[in-house]
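The step that takes the researchers longest sounds almost clerical: writing a folded protein down as plain text. The outcome of that step, for a single protein, is printed below.
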Amino acid sequence: MGDDQRELSRLWRIMRTTKQMCADRGYELTEEECNISLADFRAQYADESGAPNRAKMAFTARPSDEMIKRYTPLPRPGQTVDPEPGIGTIHVEFVNDPSIGIKHLKAFAQLLHEKNFMTGIFVTAAAPTTSAMKIVPSVLPTVIEVFREEDLLVNISRHELVPKHTLLSAEDKKRLLERYRLKETQLPRIRMDDPMAKYLGLRRGQVVKIIRKSETAGRYASYRWVI
């Protein structure tokens, strides 16, 4: 297998994981898109020489109705209009520049703003500089997430030892806290940089339900507050 074919196979795995990740969050992607064959990937994303073209791999996806519901906050007391959901169309780009600096993430943030994308995923072969990463929290309300290609070669959520994580809606979170008479700060915590929290794009203050297997109980659920 030549270098181009090895790189094509590697990017095929990365693309599949990225689309599966977006679908697991609740974005509207078909089974066929998430599990594209290597042959179809080669036909769609390779140039005439057979080398992969990352620019062609960019894609967008809209949130499903269920995802919009999970990201819609509860109305405040006295509020007369429905709250706006904190989610919208996502845009994903794959970049192969040998170094990723401030200008790359600024340009990406500008694109998201111009196209009215609420979330952007920036998949890069090289590690961004520390100064570049400082831009990420400054572009609110737009959300930028940065992933290294090497971290997407394998879908961690499919591993048998990784329990199922499900984001609670604001309403479900409220019911959970009322049921156990808790404040959210009393829940066990999960960091935003936890691999599964990052996979699902969890945000600070959200609560995720984790379902684990048990030899005695079959399955049991626990909850984590995102910090």
The helical segments are 3-25, 31-34, 38-45, 65-70, 102-115, 130-133, 170-180, 195-200. The beta strands are 59-61, 90-95, 119-124, 143-148, 164-167, 189-190, 207-214, 218-226. Residues 1-154 form a domain with the Dna-directed Rna Polymerases I, Ii, And Iii 27 Kd Polypeptide; Chain: A; domain 1 fold (CATH 3.40.1340.10). The radius of gyration is 19 Å.
